[in-house]
Amino acid sequence: MKMIGLRKIRKEKGYSQLKAAMDLHISREALSYYENGQRCPNLEMLVRMSDYFHVSIDYLIKGEEYKK
User: Fold this and answer.
1) Which CATH architecture has domain 4-62?
2) 54: phi then psi, degrees, rounded to nearest 5
3) Residue 1 pLDDT
4) In the chain, where are the structural domains located?
5) Which of 20, 35, 37, 59 sits at 20 to 30 Å (Cα–Cα) from 29?
6) The whole model's pTM is what?
7) Distance (Å, rounded) from C-alpha 61 to C-alpha 5?
8) b vs e for 23-41, b when ≥16 Cβ sit within 10 Å of the residue's Cβ?
9) What is the pLDDT of residue 65?
């Protein structure tokens, strides 16, 4: 599953993959795999990314906030 919002929010904040990966305590390659859909982060990592970027998990995955 490609995480559309992850790349989008990282670029909006002006963070390189390396900076975000270092702050999240993962490799740059792992972050790239998440952004490109080659790997899926576990729930703990989704929560950590959500807190780090100050967006919902829905946003990280779909690139938009949840709508009823």
Assistant:
1) Orthogonal Bundle (1.10)
2) 60, 45
3) 78
4) 4-62
5) 59
6) 0.88
7) 5
8) ebebeeebbebbbeeebeb
9) 82
